[in-house]
Amino acid sequence: MATLGSSGRSRGRRTFTADINVTPMVDVMLVLLIIFMITATALQRGVEVNLPKAATSNLTVPRTTPLLVTVTQDATVYISETEIELEELTSKLLAIAGEGYEERIFLQGDTNAAYGEVLAVMTQMKNAGFTNIALVTDPKSRVEGTQ
């Protein structure tokens, strides 16, 4: 009879199993992953300058990482993202040329930078032996009056 009484009690009770439902967590993680992927591509790195407009828009992209020299509005000079004094520019570029860099060098001047400052940087680039100098312009805008 003792066995009947114990089995009678267990029939009325339900047993719960503790299962973790991971589907909502996976959904949240995928949404976060998509958000991070979108924001990571939207971020821009480097020195922010206002680029001048140009009449041409179809430019070829080099296969290697280009060397970028930037002149900001307040005449600060950068090689890639490293700030450098204008007086040291020729020696730094000579060191880069000595390492075997023979690709095109890009000069990115702010629209509001003084023309003389950009010209001084370009002169030092030529003095360092770089003759293939390209000026960076804003590819999204065009000069008024051109097609």
Q: Which helices and strands, and how do they pair?
A:
Layout: H1 2-12, H2 23-42, E1 67-71, E2 77-79, E3 82-84, H3 89-98, E4 105-109, H4 115-127, E5 133-135
Parallel strand pairs: 1-4, 4-5
Antiparallel strand pairs: 1-2, 2-3
Structure, briefly:
By secondary structure, this protein is α/β, with parallel strands linked by helices.
Description:
The protein is of the alpha/beta class and 147 residues long. It has a domain at 2-42. The protein has helices spanning 2-12, 23-42, 89-98, 115-127; strands spanning 67-71, 77-79, 82-84, 105-109, 133-135. A hairpin with a 2-residue loop joins β2 (77-79) and β3 (82-84).
Question: Which properties best describe this structure?
Answer:
elongated; alpha/beta; 5 strands; 147 residues
Summing up helix and strand content along with how strands pair, one would put the structural category as alpha/beta
Radius of gyration: 31 Å
Number of helices: 4
Listing every helix as H and every strand as E from the N terminus to the C terminus, the arrangement reads HHEEEHEHE
